[in-house]
């Protein structure tokens, strides 16, 4: 059914005043529609930036998990490989347990720094008008940081029991 040259619709409009069928609604003037579209574009840009920050944090979680788990595996294999020494730069050497410690510490510190960076970015987006919401990626990053701390503590206590 046509009403004044505009198709009738179910009454569902999007933010810009356009119906689901794409017909412009006569109750909004052009300036209001363009202003609403601009505001929607800004909001969507903030949302895209937030999602990019979340993806970056999740990438750091994956990287840190790999470092922590590889370090833990090396630490557990340290009992078997007690006599193995690794040459670092120059004439410095370390054992497998030392490499395991470094990997776990680097993974945990990288994860904590990535979580802090994510909070700083989200705070900046919030100041620009983004509505803050809970972040599953941030919670996982904090839990993985605690896991890294526990793994490091486990290796240190295991190494002390072996040497005692």
Describe the SSE topology.
Layout: E1 2-3, E2 6-7, H1 30-77, E3 85-87, E4 93-95, H2 96-127, H3 136-163
Antiparallel strand pairs: 1-2, 3-4
Give a concise summary.
With 164 residues, the protein is mainly alpha-helical. It has helices spanning 30-77, 96-127, 136-163; strands at residues 2-3, 6-7, 85-87, 93-95. It has one domain.
Features:
two-stranded antiparallel sheet; 164 residues; 4 strands; elongated; two-stranded antiparallel ribbon; disordered N terminus; mainly alpha; 3 helices
Would you write up a description of this structure?
The chain is mainly α. It has one domain (47-163). It has three helices and four strands; from the N terminus they run ββαββαα. The protein has helices at 30-77, 96-127, 136-163, and strands at 2-3, 6-7, 85-87, 93-95. A two-stranded antiparallel ribbon has the order 1-2. A two-stranded antiparallel sheet has the order 3-4. A hairpin with a 5-residue loop joins strand 3 (85-87) and strand 4. Helix 1 (30-77) packs antiparallel against helix 2 (96-127) and helix 2 packs antiparallel against helix 3 (136-163). The longest helix is centred in the first third of the chain and has 48 residues, at 30-77. The model is unreliable at 1-9 (pLDDT under 50).
On the 0 to 100 scale, the average pLDDT is: 77
Structural class: mainly alpha
- Terminus-to-terminus distance: 89 Å
User: What composes the largest sheet?
Assistant: 2 strands, antiparallel
H/E topology pattern: EEHEEHH
Give the low-pLDDT segments.
Answer: 1-9
Total number of domains: 1
Placed side by side, the strands forming the largest sheet appear as 1-2
User: Could you give the count of β-strands?
Assistant: 4
Count of helical stretches: 3
Could you estimate the helical fraction of the residues in percent? 55-70%
Sum up the overall morphology in one term: elongated
* β-sheet strand percentage: 5-15%
Radius of gyration using CA atoms only: 27 Å
